[in-house]
From TrEMBL:
Superkingdom as given in the UniProt entry: Eukaryota
Name of the molecule in the record: Uncharacterized protein
Coiled-coil residue spans: none
Transmembrane recorded as keyword: yes
TM segment ranges: 24-46, 52-72, 102-121, 141-159, 171-190, 210-231
Family: Belongs to the MIP/aquaporin (TC 1.A.8) family.
CDD domains: MIP
One cellular component term from this protein's GO annotations in UniProt: membrane
InterPro entries xrefs: Aquaporin-like (IPR023271), Aquaporin_transptr (IPR034294), MIP (IPR000425), MIP_CS (IPR022357)
Length: 255
């Protein structure tokens, strides 16, 4: 979700060195559990007369992103998404040398989760858990670009800006995912994540419209982070910003 600094984004002056293998493992596990829960909700819904419902699936995606962001954000930044990794690297908030291992880790997590779900729900229950356009390719491309832009814009605001209420970053990002899936799910599947679409596509050998879910999220994420990077500029000193950045810290002084 964020860069390699702690998830609350309010400790940029604290340098914590974390071995790349720990970050790699965190991204594999995080992406695995995100895909397993989110896509698992999709296949269970399809196999059981839509008992979870579309709003329920949206909530599952939002909750799993929020939980994993708080669990692994301080280790790897909780990207779980190649588009997020590339976007952070494009504004130099993430080292370029770590981009390839992060993307590999995210793809491994997605493939393992998709494979696990296919093994569990096989035979008659072998539902495709990937993403397919519900309308035209152009419509799907535009929707994926916009919702990924929105997601990355929120991530940039709450997880990388010292002026934000950093303790609520995971909640804000998870809520954004929930909102996007709620309204864009029936149109595109609301991927926002090349790994989320590629993993199931490879496991199920279903590649219709896959270019949309690779190109649009990358473009949307880079655009979203650059737009926020442009409007976040401030001449305030870091100390002045960080003293008023934390809602929780501010409340502690009044108790």
């Amino acid at each position: 979700m964020a860069d390699n600094s702690p998830i609350n984004g309010n400790n940029d002056n604290v340098v914590v060195s974390i071995p790349i293998w720990q970050k790699f493992l965190a991204e594999v596990l995080g992406t695995y559990f995100m895909i397993f829960a989110g896509c698992g909700a999709v296949v269970v819904n399809l196999d059981n007369e839509k008992v979870i419902t579309h709003p329920g699936i949206s909530v599952v995606w939002g909750l799993v992103v929020m939980v994993l962001a708080y669990t692994l954000g301080h280790i790897s930044g909780a990207h779980f998404n190649p588009a997020v990794t590339i976007a952070h690297a494009s504004i130099r908030r993430f080292p370029l040398k770590e981009v390839p291992p992060y993307i590999v880790a995210q793809m491994i997590g997605s493939l393992l989760a998709s494979g696990t779900l296919r093994l569990i729900f096989n035979g008659r229950k072998n539902q495709f858990i990937g993403t397919l356009p519900g309308g035209s390719d152009l419509q799907a491309f535009v929707v994926e670009f916009i919702i990924t832009f929105y997601l990355m814009f929120v991530i940039s605001g709450v997880a990388t800006d010292n002026r934000a209420i950093g303790e609520l970053a995971g909640l804000a990002v998870g809520s954004t995912v929930c909102l996007n899936v709620m309204f864009a799910g029936p149109i595109t599947g609301a991927s926002m994540n090349p790994a989320r679409s590629l993993g199931p596509a490879i496991i199920h050998n279903e590649y219709r419209g896959i270019w949309i879910y690779i190109v649009a999220p990358f473009l949307g994420a880079v655009a979203g982070t650059w737009v926020y990077h442009f409007i976040r500029y401030t001449n305030k000193p870091v100390r002045e910003i960080t003293e008023s950045a934390s809602f929780v810290k501010g409340q502690r002084g009044t108790v």
